[in-house]
Amino acid sequence: MARSLKKGPFVDYFLQEKVDKMNKAGIKKPIKTYSRRSMIIPDMIGFTFDVHNGRKFISVFVSENMVGHRLGEFSPTRVFKGHGSKKVAEASSSPAAAPPKPAGKG
Length: 106
Description:
The protein has 106 residues and is of the alpha+beta class. The chain has helices at residues 13-25, 84-93, and strands at residues 31-33, 48-52, 57-61. A 3-stranded mixed beta sheet has the order 1-2-3, covered by helices on one side. Strand 2 (48-52) and strand 3 (57-61) form a beta hairpin. It is elongated, with a radius of gyration of 24 Å. The mean pLDDT is 87.
């Protein structure tokens, strides 16, 4: 469900403070954060955020096209490895997967 326009975008206060300090100083170091729920605002353009996905930190460079999205959208938490039944069917039908025939006596 979308956030009301009258409330404005949600950004965690500690993340906003870090961005403001770095903008004033003119520094563009990566910012480590667990705040996947924070919305990307125009002040964040050009910064690199290390967003935690539950296991490790994923580097996300913010561009103009990302404004209005959440930081968590660019740090996937699940890895899709494909559908198992399709792989099993391909492996059994290919001739390379068939076991070699034993050399018989005749």
